[in-house]
Amino acid sequence: MSKSYFDETHTAIGHPKSTFMQWMLTIDHKRIGLMYAAVMFAFFFVAVATAFLMRLELFAPGGQFIDGDTFNQAFTLHGVIMIFLFIVPGIPAVLGNIVMPLMIGAKDVSFPRLNWFTFWLYILGCIIALASLFTDAGFADTGWTFYAPYSITTDTNVVFTLVAAFVLGMASILTGLNFLVTIHRLRAPGMTFWKMPLFVWGIYATAWIQLLATPVVGITLILAIMEKYFGIGIFDPAKGGDPVLFEHLFWIYSHPAVYLMILPAFGVMSEIIPTFSRREVFGYRAIALSSASIAGIGYLVWGHHLYTSGMADIAKTIFSFLTFFVAIPTGIKFYDWIATMYKGKIILSTPMLWALGTIITFTIGGLTGVTIAMIGVDIHLQDTYYTVAHFHYAMLGGVVFLFFAGLHYWFPLVTGKMYNETHAKRAFYLQFVGFNLLWFPMFIAGYYGMPRRYFDYLPEFQIYHQVSFVGAVLFIAGLIYMFIVFFKGWKSGNPSGPNPWNATTLEWHMPSSPPPLENHSKVPYVDFNPYEYHHGEPVVKFDYATMKRID
Amino acid sequence: MDVNNTLQGFNTMAATFAADVDQAFWINFWISVVLGLSVIIPMFYFAWKYRASNVKNEDIKNITHNTPLEIAWTLIPTALLMVLFYYGYSSMKTLRTMPAESESIVVKVEGSKWKWRYEYPPNKNGFVHKLGGAYTKPILDENGKMIKKGTMGKSALYVPVDTNIILHMTAPVDDVIHAFFVPAFRMKEDVVPGRLTKQWFRADKVGEYEVECAEYCGTDHAYMYSRIVVLPKEKYEEWFQGTADTPEGDYANSGDALLQQHGCKSCHAVTEDKMLIGPTLKTRRLTKEQVLEVIHNGQDKLGYPMGAMPAGLATGKDAEEIAAFVAGGMKGEKPASFAACSSCHGEDGKGMGGVSPSLVHYDTNLLRNVFKHGKKGMIGTMPAYPYITDEEVEAIATYLDSLK
User: Fold this and answer.
1) Which residues of A touch B140 (CB under 8 A)?
2) How confident is the model at residue A164 (pLDDT cuts 50, 70, 90)?
3) Which of A196, B42, B79, B114 lies at 20 to 30 Å from B147 by C-alpha?
4) What is the pTM of this model?
5) Mind listing the domains of chain A with CATH numbers?
6) pLDDT (tens digit, 9 = 90+) per residue, B290-328?
7) How many structural domains is chain B composed of?
8) Cα–Cα distance between A309 and A145 in angstroms, integer?
9) Cβ contact A40:A168 at 8 Å
10) If contacts are CB pairs under 8 Å, which of residues 16-55 in chain B contact chain A?
């Protein structure tokens, strides 16, 4: 039997004998992706548990389990983990690392050692972020947005979180840099930009955001640290600073960051829909360019977070106008995906179920985002549960759902085995129902004026919190179910073979399953489009020993 | 009109521009429904029509372009989105176009951790109404079940109906950002330290409407409520030209609000055990220095019938011992020298039925006397507050008790 990347690896330094050290020092993109996944999902569950603690507290008005300060730390912890430790590295760090080089026919990323270093930088960031849980002053209670002057004046240990966000931002920049160079330099011969799979387009657009937007938040966090510990007055009005400046600087990064999260997710969707419709994707260039234009316009809309900050009305108007232009390419993508299903052959496997479920949840998440792009309406809904529900529909119901879709889709590629489809589908339905029950009531509560980040609430809102709680229980049960299905599949699933889904892109043309250390046996020549189907069968076939076309 | 403490306002519209905001919201809602269904309905239809069991491989069609359709699904949503942009813009315009100050009442609003304060322009007698304070938290039993709802207390902003009100809002420079959010009016604007932000409204329904802080501001962010009470014009005018704090005496007396309102907090820490200009009100126990000070200098401002306490009843080491004992909460072994005190303050130090004050902690009686006569303290003199009513003293005492 041929050796897979589980059996052998290249390492950053030396030739360690122990399996453990081989994993710690590995520079193989597939192994690094897997390690990211392990760490990220461990943190993901910590953040889910924190969220559940908050839901539990909010089940009834008044304080039951935790006090206000603990609640404030809980939502900060939840936000910091979910944003900086989970969803920002997210799909690029896991699926991008594992799949992107395979998709373009590369043996690894351009800078494998840098990739290794980035992973450990990420781990360092995680440690710093959580270290303050165990210090005297306690975890930060600022919310993940660190708004000044609150973050400057609070007694909690904000510096750890700020430094961690900086380090994690650095890791994000390096990932982006590595991927950009890889996509530019290591595509298989013949693979022009217009022949790249759409997931690679998503990663490409994301990498530019990582590289260009992240430094802004890095600078902002450094300024906040300088201010808090060295007394330089940039943001604190008591020292002559301006707190609204912090908001601007923060969102100049953090708004593009949400596109940084969603674009690779859209890439996953663009892989799954044609594969499970057994036909060529509709509007390839439109989908690719819409990713690029979302990334571009995304830089210019940060002010829509500041409609109630005291910003000038003319600035609000301009930011609002520009924001609507993000919705247009996003809409085009959705119509293209739906059109891809037209006259196809729809195979409702688990990845496809997740993708179609996301079309529903992200449509709601996206359109409610349009609501709060409208200035007058946002003045009412800003900082209410409506906004909270919107971004959870977009981030959890968009990015994370598609992340799960991608995990189901590439699971056989990574492990060489197949999970139990029946159970996986049940886990999907459980999560889908739980998710909607959890978040939809918040739209209504927010419309009636339930502010976010409230530890206690007026009795009028009790019913919405209770329905949400039931949804949370279902959702978390579904999550655990799904991971059990993954675990069992990896442990005792049937071998899947190299191409279980009848997919067309290069990562499914491996000589063995799971893939060998250096991927394709030979670099293929790419003179075909990524999704070529004829009568429901992939057109392009390879001799996997020579990577010559045999169709 | 009955002014009471029922909460209302989340599902009502009570400002002139609320209808514009709601109209914009509902136009957006229906356009969103149309756009959303234009994606979701075909998705379900295709997933069903082209289900695997229903399609032969030869029937699959690789359609990759349809220019008219693509133009349609680009231009139609763009047009609809521009409609939404317009309504977002126009509703903002009505929200943000300030009326002339000459035709409005300008109220200064200060948001600080975690209360709202309001300052009116002077009335015809030159009296300036200063209102506001913190919300009284709900009371729970040990199982976390609510026994008593929280109340907005005295922290209300009273305004006449059908009148332009302009809010000039700010926060102290050493405070943090808050946001003044009135759901029933559909309005919100941040209150930023060191900046002046403005909002206006014209309430068209008499009633009471919640004010919430919408920008996260720390420990009691979830309790930073206030309310806007919209009064009939005559009623407002009658109150405004007088000096009473509220139009009716029906508001729950919130001790914290009272402390805030009378400015106690500018000299005394209330929830923390620390010395500001005056001693903390949290422990309600005298410090060693305070006891020594009274022993050495006497005390004659508390208004107890027994009269002034002469200086020098104990000296030197005796005085030290007594001070340590009293400051320690009268626990442990009682020093012999305490005999000098017990003749007036009792063996247990709890005072004598309003004749001489308790040393264990200061009680309602003492508070009342201090308010009435003022007090010369170690650092400075606390002025008298003779206008504080007995009910208010009770409320403050109850509140301070709850902090111990």
Assistant:
1) 62-63
2) very high
3) B114
4) 0.83
5) 23-549 (1.20.210.10)
6) 777 777 777 766 666 666 777 777 777 778 877 777 777
7) 3
8) 14
9) no
10) 20-21, 24-25, 28-29, 32, 35-36, 39-40, 42-43, 46-47, 50-52, 55
